[in-house]
Predict the structure.
Amino acid sequence: MKKYNVVTTLSYPKKGAMGKTGNWRVFRPILDKKKCVKCLRCWIYCPEATIIRNKDDSVDIDYEYCKGCGICANVCKVKAIVMEREGKKK
Amino acid sequence: MTTVMIDTGNYIAAKAAVMCKPDVVAAYPITPQTTLVEGIANYVQTGEFKGEYICVESEHSAMAACIGSSATGVRTFTGTSSHGLLLMHEMLHWAALARLPIVMCNINRVIGPGWNIWSDENDSISQRDTGWLQFYCSSNQEIFDTVIQSFKLAEHEKIQLPVMINYNAFILSHTSMPVYVPDQKEIDGFLSRRKPLWKLDVDNPVTFGNIILPAEYEKIRKDMQDAQEYAKKLIPEISKEWKQRFGRYHGDLLELYKCDNADYILLSMGAIGAESKVAIDNLQKNGYKIGLARVRTFRPFPQEEIRKLGKKANLIVIDRNISLGMEGAVFTEAKGSLYGKSDAEVYGYIAGLGGKDVTYGDIEKMCMKVMKGKAKHLEWYGFEGV
């Protein structure tokens, strides 16, 4: 971290600069890999970059930072992602 | 080689700004600032101004453009007046909190309604708490010198705050006076290129003004206050260096004029400050022990200097502004500075609102009324006679 003579707000890019935002989540995206067609729409639309793109274009979800906004489930054409309430008893 | 330029306050400010080689000027015209930005536009045409001139659709946008520009680490200048300054209000706070050393001329003009373009300080006084440093000039030479000094002050590594240079509508903005203009090389010797502590840079990404928690935010405010306090030390140093290089001196935070052995000290700002010198000369000729302390910086406020004056003399304050529901702004600050440190009496006048003329004769009358013991603590001069 650089030191300056003045105090101001400068944020350098760093993973999780605002803490583990995953604990803000109310709804949790659940991915069914069998349904996924690797179109990557979820990866493109995720506003928090918490959809992890693998080498073969399959995806995973980074639950440490996913805030549960549900955009990925909304844009998924094959309904491979569904939103479930956190803490729901199965 | 120094040349003498005879021109109006606005054209002089434009000349000074261009000699500081700003990389960006973003401004929107408003009476009586118009000729300032026209002057800079003219320097674009002559090739003397080599930076970017951004035409914008409002003053809010002008300041927003200046914020963006200054954040990229380059020198930035603008000018406005009255309602234009008020439209910038949100962005003024932003510029100061983001610690961007923008320099701006504000031509003090009445706020409407009723619609009026004459001189009055209420526009800039109402920006008191934005964090900007505020100068008030009393002559075109002081405007020229202060614009150049202000870049050095604003861009100092321990200041990093924007500076507003205020001068009176028409009385200075549209009045020609001779001004000594040093050679460009001499200016370059005094003012080097801006060295930003940080900047917007795609190769080294950084976010400005991000979310911040309460305890961290408080540190930002405290640091701005510390920078304003540091400016109290730095302004006299810059004035001293200017005097050594160019032989001119307009005072530090205050300009003291014939204050030795005075029983009364007059505090005034801007063009009234210049007029006050004539009044002081006349009053001293008639045997009155009165001197002048012209308030050159309203922020930071010269608290310690006024305390010193208040130990030896009573104070008379003339304000061309009013904080409605209270009194003149300098009057309040002067009394606050003395609290617990002095038994001096302080008298305040409201004078020249709406651009009403305040001549040396008027100033003499105000001072005489106080010195004869006939003044109340707050008076409106010339409202129903003094």
User: Anything to note?
Assistant: The longest strand of chain B covers residues 3-8. The two ends of chain B are 49 Å apart (CA to CA).
